[in-house]
């Protein structure tokens, strides 16, 4: 945990966990898990930390891709007095996912959202060009949308639970 002391009314917090890169066969399960945790306002962390407890201004979880590995990021903004409470709720949710996994309905819903996003972006030539350029720069090859959709479709509940067990170490969050 890195702390930067500034005189401000709110605090920005970024928690990072190691993750696989997009060449690793667990990448797709990792991305699904990150999205379930914090991709949008229907995500677990948003519902718990923002809606149920009102502790943060915003919260998200996203997977950062790097050629040699990835990073799962959990970001939130809050007041200084709510940091510890928010961290505790996040830690509890990570422990819960490690222990119980996710629901089939969550997995199915996230797969559908990702599939729609991939297919929609593939219809836009600028998005395709930018995506291909990034892939070429990072990985020296382009990834094909159809195989990515298939990889996401093949993700199982046990793979998502394995990702949580492998990469989330909530002890570091305290």
Could you please describe the fold and organization of this structure?
The protein has a three-stranded antiparallel β-sheet, with helices on one face. It has helices at residues 27-38, 44-52, 83-100, 104-122, 125-139, 145-153, 157-167; strands spanning 10-19, 58-66, 69-79. It is an alpha+beta fold and 174 residues long. The chain is globular and about 45 Å long. Helix 1 (27-38) crosses helix 4 (104-122), helix 2 packs antiparallel against helix 3 (83-100) and helix 4 (104-122) runs antiparallel to helix 6 (145-153). It has seven helices and three strands; from the N terminus they run E-H-H-E-E-H-H-H-H-H. The mean pLDDT is 90.
Write the layout of secondary structure elements.
Elements: E1 10-19, H1 27-38, H2 44-52, E2 58-66, E3 69-79, H3 83-100, H4 104-122, H5 125-139, H6 145-153, H7 157-167
Antiparallel strand pairs: 1-3, 2-3
């Amino acid at each position: 945990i890195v702390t930067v002391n500034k005189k401000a009314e709110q605090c920005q917090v970024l928690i990072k966990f190691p993750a696989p890169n997009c060449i690793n066969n667990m990448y797709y399960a990792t991305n699904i898990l990150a999205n379930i945790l914090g991709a949008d306002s229907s995500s677990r962390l948003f519902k718990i930390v923002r809606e149920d407890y009102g502790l943060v201004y915003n919260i998200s979880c996203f997977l950062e891709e790097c050629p040699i590995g990835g990073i799962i990021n959990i970001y939130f903004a809050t007041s200084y007095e709510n940091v510890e409470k928010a961290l505790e709720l996040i830690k509890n949710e990570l422990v819960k996912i490690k222990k119980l996994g996710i629901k089939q309905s969550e997995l199915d819903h996230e797969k559908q959202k990702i599939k729609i996003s991939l297919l929609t972006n593939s219809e836009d030539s600028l998005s395709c060009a930018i995506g291909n350029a990034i892939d070429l720069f990072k990985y020296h090859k382009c990834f094909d949308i159809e195989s990515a959709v298939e990889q996401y479709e093949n993700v199982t509940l046990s793979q998502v639970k394995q990702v949580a067990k492998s990469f989330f170490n909530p002890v570091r969050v305290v």
